[in-house]
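hey can u check if this looks right to u? its 315 residues, i copy pasted from the old doc so theres a chance i mangled smth
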Amino acid sequence: MPRPVPSYSVRREPLKFYSGEETMRTGVHRPTGGAALPAPLTERLAAMAAPCPMHPSMYQIEAAVIEWTRRVGLEADPGAGAHLLAGRAFARYGMGTATLFARWLIWTSRFREKPSAFAGVLAVAGGGEPGPPLERAFADLWRVCAPGMGDGWRERFLAGLAAQHAALLDTVAPSAEDYPALGRARFGRCLSDLVEPCTGVEVPAPVRESAQWRAVVEASADVAVWCDDLASGRGYVAAAPVPRGEAAEQWVIDRVVARMEELWTAARAIPVVVERHGLDFAASREVIQVACAFLTIPRAYLEWLLESPRYRHLR
């Protein structure tokens, strides 16, 4: 599988990216005066100032995803626009990486709608024969991803899927303090684990278990979850410790901006973590490529949301 050319140094230097750190970083712009409406995300996040690059094989990715949904028997277009999100998130990877991630996006979207499928999916992961389309789709994806990953990854992914299943069945409204972890679980903590098999890289346990790596993964997921909440008006918006409506939306936008800054702070520490654990150059390059994907996914997700006419109020 083709690898993107990395744009970083494994020495103790700040992370640098071809797209320019300044265009990817967030700019915190406080609303002035007595503006009644919350500042749009595009005004608060400088990361949205420049568009994400799009994968050059986008049409082929879309066609491959449509063919796959028909082959495994999923409903027509169950994850509208998944190829656009995956094409942005993995624009510099091979077509196979973006296509595989798009298929997983569709599958996880369907799983969120039908968490009752968990028992059957778990049985398939254990070697059982798939039944309904959701199980058949999972079996197809699992055959592609699981053999190339270690036992640790498989356990993490299935644990994340179990956590998602439990969170989706939990109807208790969370507090603002409890929501970040619950929101990641409901949205699909397992999505973060899919970056590794899609890119063909399993992050070594010492790096993956470091505080800096966990901060990168969690902050990346939080931004995607909270932006989804802003678009839908549920989740974190509902849990905000301020009255519902514009005040809650503004409060969540503040959290998104702050979380993006925390993501970049954590990402800058990854080269030091890699060096500390003695990875050779090839392994270091692969690990930092995965970190780059976690930096790109929130920006790609934001742009994917904002291009939809349904979410014009966030622009």
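The longest helix spans residues 281-306.
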